[in-house]
Design brief:
80% of the residues lie in helices and 0% in strands. By secondary structure, the protein is mainly alpha-helical. It has a single domain, classed as Na+/H+ antiporter like fold (Up-down Bundle). The mean pLDDT is 87.
Length: 398
């Protein structure tokens, strides 16, 4: 079917779904996801899997913008106020999720390699699901600032955790050890390359943008920076999210006024981009996978949720962070999608060549993570709204 018609259909259905979701007191993103679910293979199959794969440029573009805006909110002055607490929270919630999922999966299966890989999937979050809810409800305050920082930075840590866990899982399956350098080389290149690339483009963008006064023109150059950064990230196999996050951070902290005008200009176009992004994300969710999730998936959901919330509480408590972070931050980081799916695909590629045991692990991981994503993509935004409402931060931003 003609691509422009389908994009228009996604916008219309997403808009209606968002309005219905708001009427039911849910974040609009839940309506976008359900609209996509209805249009996708699970129901009407208007958005087929083949068609969705051809629309990858939309998801990359939207993720780039989300990461850029998150980076723009992470000003050094704000991070200094949070102090070491934010670092403690990121490590605590990431390793808390890893540890609990590892324990739960091992208790169920008694297989160390399975527990390691599923544990490594748990820390990865979905920045888009959280960030869009914060923007929709114009949230502002210590919890909002902490959420931007956590969902922006914990994906880098998740990639490193997966690298070590995958290496140990391979040793468990094959009995052959890998060198330390071979374990960390890939993730270090991916993370470092993304940070350098985004920082360099952010510096250039700021230098140009400070000489521009028209919002239309600053929107144009900002969009070009995000697109170039996203395209080069994909080409060099860097993390697209971390690269655009670095772009936003450098731009915001070196050129504050120009960055503020850039983010304001993005507000004029962000709604249709986010709508298409989440409709596509919803179409990828396949209800038929839910039965395949089984007891393993239920344990993964429960242990990941408890690990993230408990870890965030512990990290905030030991670092004497704001009490509101202890109470509610864990609710705002439950969303999981792109990065976790990416790690699951990586696990499929890495382990399917390790005999029948590796093939069984690969199939189990990709199906279980795809199924649990359905649950986390729906409950994540709802939990985020609950957190910022209880913290009293809704409607505080201008």
């Amino acid at each position: 079917m003609q691509i422009l018609f389908l994009v228009g259909l996604m916008l219309a259905c997403g808009f209606i779904g968002g309005k219905i979701s708001n009427r039911l007191k849910f974040p609009a993103v839940v309506g976008y996801l359900i609209a996509g679910l209805l249009l996708g293979p699970s129901f009407l199959n208007i958005l087929t899997l083949e068609l969705l794969r051809s629309m990858g440029v939309f998801t990359d573009f939207a993720l780039g913008i989300v990461a850029f805006i998150i980076g723009s909110e992470m000003r050094l002055s704000t991070l200094r106020k949070m102090g070491k607490g934010i670092v403690a929270i990121i490590f605590s919630e990431s390793f808390g999720a890893f540890a609990l999922v590892f324990a739960g999966v091992y208790f169920l299966t008694h297989k160390v390699y399975l527990a390691l890989i599923f544990g490594a999937m748990a820390p990865a979050s979905a920045p888009a699901g959280t960030a869009v809810v914060l923007q929709e409800y114009k949230a502002k305050g210590p919890l909002t600032n902490a959420l931007y920082a956590v969902v922006g930075l914990d994906d880098g840590l998740a990639i490193m955790i997966y690298a070590f866990a995958a290496a140990l899982a391979k040793i468990s399956i094959t009995g052959s050890a890998e060198s330390f350098l071979s374990i960390v080389k890939g993730p270090i290149i991916e993370i470092t390359g993304a940070i350098i690339l985004g920082g360099f483009i952010g510096f250039i963008l700021g230098y140009i943008a400070r000489k521009i006064h028209s919002k239309k023109e600053i929107l144009s150059v900002s969009l070009s920076a995000v697109m170039i950064c996203s395209g080069l990230s994909n080409y060099f196999h860097f993390s697209l999210i971390l690269a655009n996050l670095s772009l936003g951070i450098i731009f915001a902290n070196l050129y504050l006024h120009a960055n503020r005008r850039s983010v304001e200009s993005f507000n004029f176009i962000s709604l249709p981009i986010y709508t298409i992004f989440f409709v596509i994300a919803g179409a990828y969710l396949q209800i038929s996978l839910l039965p395949a999730m089984g007891l393993l998936g239920i344990i993964y959901i429960a242990c990941r949720s408890l690990g993230l919330m408990g870890g965030a509480y512990f990290g905030a408590a030991v670092s004497n962070s704001d009490p509101v972070l202890r109470k509610y931050l864990g609710f705002g980081i439950l969303s999981q999608a792109g990065v976790a799916i990416g790690l699951a695909i990586m696990a499929t590629r890495d382990f399917s060549v390790l005999g029948q045991t590796g093939k069984d692990l690969a199939v189990l991981v990709i199906n279980t993570i795809a199924a649990t994503t359905i649950v986390f993509e729906i409950i994540g935004p709802i939990a985020t709204k609950f957190a910022i409402r209880k913290a009293g931060e809704i409607g505080k931003a201008k």
